[in-house]
Amino acid sequence: MIKNNIKYLAVLALGLIACEPEFDNPIEESNNFTSGELDLTNYVALGNSLTAGFADGALYITGQENSFPNILAQQFKIVGGGEFTQPLMADNTGGFAGNNADFPPRLVLVFDENQQPVGPAPYTGAASTTDISANLGGTFNNMGVPGAKSFHLGFEGYGSLNPYFGRFQQSATSSVIADAVAQNPSFFSLWIGNNDILGYATSGGTGEDHNVTGNMDPTSYGSNDITNNGLFSQTYTGLVQALAAGGRKGVLIDLPNVTSIPFFTTVPFAPLSPLDPDFAAQIPTLNETYAGLNMAFVGLGVPERSVEFSATAASAVVIKDESLEDITTQLTAAITPVFGPLAPIIAAQFGQVRQATEEDLLVLTSSSVIGQLDTDRVAELVGLGVPQELAGQLSVKGVTLPLEDQFVLIPAEQTAIKVAQDSYNETIRNLATANGLAFVSMKSQLSQVASGGVSFDGGVITSTFASGGGFSLDGVHPTPRGHALVANGILDALERTYGLVVPRVNPGEFGTITVSNEVN
Amino acid sequence: MKKLLLLVLFITVTAVTYAGGYRVSVQGQRAMAMGHTGVAVVNSAELVFFNPAGLVYLENNLNVSAGVSGIFSEVIFQNTESGVSAETDNSVGTPLNLYGSYKINDWMSVGLGVYTPYGSEVTWPTDWAGSHLVNDIDLAAIFVQPVVSFKLSDHFSIGGGPIFVTGSVNFNRNSNRTATDIDGVRSNVTVDDSGVTNWGWTIGAMFNPTENLRVGFNYRSEIIIESEDGEATFSNFPNSLAAPPNGTTSFRAELPLPAELTIGLSYEYKKWLFAFDFNRQFWDVYESLDITFGNGAPASINPRNYKNSSVYRFGLQYEATEKITLRAGYYIDESPVQEGFFAPETPRNDSDGFSGGFSYAITPKLAIDASFFFLRFKEVNASYDFYQENGQNVPFGGTYESSAFGPGLGLTYKM
Questions:
Q1: Contact at CB, A21 and B81, closer than 8 angstroms
Q2: Which ipTM value was assigned to this complex?
Q3: Among A292, A356, B186, B368, which residue's CB has the most CB atoms within a 10 Å radius?
Q4: Any CB–CB contact under 8 A between A26 and chain B?
Q5: Other beta carbons less than 10 A from residue B11's beta carbon
Q6: Cα distance from B304 to chain A (closest Cα, Å)?
Q7: pTM for the complete prediction?
Q8: Which of A89, A92, A70 is nearest to A81 (CA)?
Q9: What's the pLDDT tens digit per position in A154-210?
Q10: Which residue of B has its CA nearest to A7?
C-alpha cells in the first residue's frame, strides 16, 4: 500500500511540474529582437524640454516618465538596454516651490457641468514642492534641460542660470555636454535647437533675429532672439564632435515647423464671429467708427489697411504690423476734421494697423485676450482727455485696440524663423550623415500629424489643440502619446541605421491631456 | 501490479477536463477521478449532482459524500509584436461539494446537495497590457439542491428537484487604456456583489437495460444571476466634471449560468467499470456582459457572443483490492468562446483533461476519496476585438497559454 501511494505521489508531482504553462517561443528567448550594432547599456539623452518630458507648461513626474527617452529606454531593455535614470521632480504639480511666478504648475483642462471643455488652467490641487536650489546628486541618463538653447549645452556654469540643470549639474562650473560625456554613454540622442527659434516664435517675434544683426556672441542674446545660423552650426558641430568621439553611436533629431504646433495654429486669424451676440450688437457702431479711418486710409494711398467687420461671416482681428510704414502723422492730419483735438491720440493707435490675414499666425495666448477690454488703456486714454465712453470703445483688444506684436507672427517673422530652421536642419542632417549617426526628421513627422494626422488603433493623432491627442495643453510640448510617436520615429531610424529591432510602442496605450477641476 | 501500471499509463497518456467559460466541473471526487463522468454511474451520493434519478439504486439507506479540491491555474500571455508579456497570479480555487441521500423506501429516495459549479478566479498584474479588459475577477456560485428520486422499475428511474443559487462577483478593471488621476494612477472600477440569489431546477432519468449497463440523462436549467444591490467603486478618476466621481455607486448586471444537458452510459465488467458522459452546455445565452452604473457613468457593454459547447468524458474504475479502488479519466473540453471574443477575464480555449484518483476504505462504511486532474491547453493566438474607444473597435490579443491542476480529497460514508 505504501509502495502504491508513493507511485501516486510521483504521478501527482509530475502533474504539478507539467502544470506550469510555457510558450513554444517565449519572447525572452526569441531571436526576433536584436540590438544590432548598438550598445544600449548606458543611453544618455541630451536636449531641451522635449527630451526632459516637459508638458502642459511644466515639468512633473508623469511627464518625465512618458518622455520619449524613457519610452525608448524601456524598449531598449528588451535587447539588453541598461537602467535609465531621470532627475524626477518631487511631484505631479510641476513648477518650483515658492517660484510659481516664473515656474508655474502644470495646466489641466477644465470642464463645465455640461461636460464641455472650458479651457486650460493652472492646477492648484497641490502645491509645487520641488526645491529650486536643491542638487539631486548623482548622474542621470536623461539630461534634457527645459529652456536650453543649442549654445547653452556647452556653457560652463549654466546651472546657475537654469535651475533645471542646476538640479543635476556635477559642479557649479559644469556644462551639460561635459557632464554627459563624463558619463561615458554607450549611446546618445541629441534634440536641440528648438528654443533657438521657438522663443522668438512664441513671443510673436518680439526678439532680435541675429541672422539679420549678424551677432555671433550668444552671451549678448535675449531669450526671444533667433540664434545666428553660423553660430548654431558651429555650436552643434562641437556638440556632435564631443558626443560622437571615438565612434560613439547616437541619433540626431531635427526641428519641426512652427506651423505644425497648435500654439500657432489654434487661434484663427478671423475669430470675431457675428454669432456672438455681444459682438454682433457692436458691428454697426464699429463699422461706422472705422468708416472715417478707412476713408483716411484710402486718401493716404493705403486702402488695404481698411478695417471692416462682417455681419454674416467671422472677421479678422485688428493687429499692429510693425513692418508697415508708420503713418501716424499723415493720419492725424487726415482725421483732425472729424476728431479734432483727439486726432493725434487715435492716429497713434492706428498708425501701423491692418486686419489679420490667413498669412498671419496668432499665438495661443492671444485667445484669452481677443475681445477683452484693456482697462489700463481705457485709463490711459481718459488721462489723455478722451471721453470715458469713447475710451472704452477704443480699448477692445483685437477689435479697436490692435493686437500687439507679441500675439502675432506676421509673414516677415515667419520667414525669419523658416530661414533659421532650414539652416539648422541642414546642419543637423549633414552632421548625422558625416558622422554615420542615425537621423530623424521630426519636421516631416510632425507635418504629418498636423496635416491629416497619424492613425493608431484607437483613432487618429492630430495637432488640434487639446483634443488632437498629440500636444499637451501648452500647445508646444507633446503629450505622452506624442512622445510615443517620437519614440517610434527614432526606433525606425535606429533600425535603418544600426539594425536595432525592438517592438514599437502603441500610442493608444499612452495618455494625452489631463482633465481636472482642481483650479482656482 | 500490472493492472496498476496500466492505470497509471492511462492517467499519463490521457488528459483531464474542466469545462470552458466560467463553468468549473469538479463536483465529486469519485467522478472527478474518472474524468468527471457520472450521469450513469451508481456509486455514491455524488449522484445528487450527476443524476438524481440514480439515487434509488444505491444499495445503502444513507449515503454521504463530501469533498474539496484545490485548483491551481495559471495563464500566460505574450504579444510578440508589442513585446509585452504577462502571467496571472491566481489564488487557489476551492470547489467543494457535500451530498447526502436517504432511501425512504424501496421506490423513493431523497437527497440534498451543496456544490459550486461555477467560478472564475483570474488575477492579472494590475495595469497590465489588457487591464482595460480585466485586472482581476472572482466569480463564485453556490448551488443548494434538494432532490427526490423515484424507481419506476428495476430498469428505469427518474429524479429531480429545485436549485437554489447564491452567487457573488468581484471584478476590477481599468476604465480604459489611458485615463489616470493627476498622479498617473490608472482610473479603475470594481464591481462587487454577493448574496445574489435565484432559482433553477434539475431533472434526470436512468435506464438499466441489463445488469451491467446503465444509461443516464440529466438536465440542469439555466439560471440568470441578476445583480442589483451591489456596489461599484470608482477609483483614481481625475477630479473633473468630465469624469465620473470617485467613490461607490450602485450597478446592475446580469450573468447567466447556462443550462447543461448530460447523457451517458456506464458498463461494468468484473472489477472494471467504464463510463462515458457527453455534456452539452448552452452558453449561447451569454451574449453580452453589460454593466450599468448608478452614478451616470457610461454603461460598460462587453459583447461575449458565446456558443454552445460540448464536453466528451471517459472514465475507468478498477477495484484493485477490497479496500482500494483506482480511477482514471480523460475528457475533451470545447471552449464556448468564439474567434474575436477571447477576453482575458475567462481565457479558456479548447483543452484536454486528464484525471486520476482512488478510494481507500478505512472501514466498510467510510472511505477516503482522492482525485486529481490536469488540464492541458494548446497555446492559442486569440484576441478580443470588441473593446471600443471613440466608437472604434480596438482589438487586444496575443498568444495565451493556460494550465490548471486540481488535487482533491473527500469522504464517502454509507450506512
A1: no
A2: 0.89
A3: A356
A4: yes
A5: 27
A6: 20
A7: 0.91
A8: A70
A9: 999 999 999 999 999 999 999 999 999 999 999 999 999 999 999 999 999 999 999
A10: B8
